[in-house]
Amino acid sequence: MTKTRWYKDAIVYQIYPRSFCDSNGDGIGDIRGIISKLDYLKDLGITCVWLSPCYKSPNDDNGYDISDYRDIMDEFGTLEDWQEMIDGMHARGIKLVMDLVVNHTSDEHEWFKQSRSSKDNPYRDYYIWRPGKGKNGKKPPNNWTSRFTGSAWEYDETTGEYYLHLFSKKQPDLNWDNPKVRQEVADICNYWLEKGVDGFRCDVITYISKEEGLPDGKFNPAIIGDEHFVVGPHFHEYIHELNERAWSKYDTMIVGEAQGITVHNAHDIVDESRGEMDCIFTFEHQTMVDSFLTTVPKKFSLRKWKEVFSNWQALPDTCWNSLYIENHDYSRALPRYGKLEYRKQVAKMLAISIEFLKGTPYIYQGQEIGMTNFDDLKREDYRDIVSIKIYDAVKKYACVFLPLVKWVLNKKARDHARAPMQWSAEKNAGFTTGESWMPLNPNYTEINVAEAEKDPDSILHFYRKLNHFRLGNEIIKNGTYKQYDEKNKKLWIYEREYNGKKYAVVASYTDKEVKFVPPIEWQNKPSKLVIGNYDGQPETLDARTLKPYEAFVYEL
Ligand code: GLC
Ligand code: CA
User: Fold this and answer.
1) Whose CA is nearest to atom 4 of ligand 1?
2) Phi, psi angles (nearest 5°) of residue 52
3) Residue 290 has pLDDT above 80, yes or no
4) pLDDT over 70 (residue 296)
5) How far is the CA of 81 from the centre of ligand 2 (A)?
């Protein structure tokens, strides 16, 4: 079918279901909780939901370890609830994109239970099994490390072989070289597409094809083996095949989580002529400020940040961008890019910076009210398998580093973003009437949706205004992008132009006052203020001193 490419007009909201809204008081967010918030989502001006996994799962990695791809996790509800949810979304003009986690399954998936039971089981080759090395076969088959620390191999007593797991040992990697596995994945996609889902967010999709022979990886301080499976030898072939068998038969958006992809090889995946995926999440801007868990937080550099975004904006028109600053795998954005005493200004400034770019913007639950990190996250607060593994391993083997690790996790743990959504100042932030599955951020008494509704100057009202402004806006969707003063360490200045109309976008990334002079190209032109993050911003664009984190857009 010919794709309408509806995602080019979409604004996506990511829901992490466990922490969004609990409808039955068991302390765990669920589908009926989502249903109760559909009007809220509609009002926010979003047009699509990306739902993190809601399938059956033993929750070793909160649903990213799936034991049944065709059913809903008991704690989240039933398939009937799910149907009601998607119908409710569609009735409100909201599309639904589901998480597709198929680099690995849960070890409790029926396929894996079969696979591990004997070497000649028909499901044996659904996974990647190898004999051990060394004298008595007790050394892992190669030196690859799991993204969640430790070896990527687990020895299994039953058959005396190791299986590969690039994530936790309860997330065995599927063997995509087996044609049956690829057909299963296509069937799963079609199953949900027939039920009406509008696309998939493909989890760690760039890892699916492993190099033949599984050679040892080069040494890299934290992660070994990447070069042998990031966009491996058959990656494009397998994705293209899946696209033909499932994705292209419906009017979908397929967005890949694309570890290891840079602006230089992105078009091989997302160019419309390739028939692979529609867009990807790059990590280039995130890793500059917050490399994934295994290393100490990095200092934010506005120059690099602008450079990365500008490079991606320069992709050819046959490619499409995904624009995000938050998701369930990173701590909250605000503390990374600004000082919290200016919370509202920083949040709005970031929203302007991102939403005026070309691409599909994503808002992660809570971002729209400016949720922040915990001040002091302790061992007993961790729920994420990664925080727990890192902390416990360091405590056991390298105790002297414990204060450092605590400090790092306090800045970077994924737990920060997974704290329950803050709906009101009531008990448990209105997230649950029971006992929450994970601690709430105590600042919910001030930062919450109910409070934001009352405050005309709130981040929430700002997002609503910005989203509604963006929807259907041709300049933002199609315009060219041009950056000015790229060496400036405090300001991001860019323009979007389409059919003779321009948006002049200026965002200050500093808590200091800073002088701004419009570039020559913007001078002596009639201008009109479109949106900004301070009251009383002048109606026309002139040289002036900007306030902390000030941002605005003028139409020229
Ligand atoms: C992706 C998910 C992350 C998960 C991992 C393994 O990176 O976003 O939450 O832990 O894949 O499935
Ligand atoms: Ca519940």
Assistant:
1) 64
2) -60, 165
3) no
4) no
5) 12
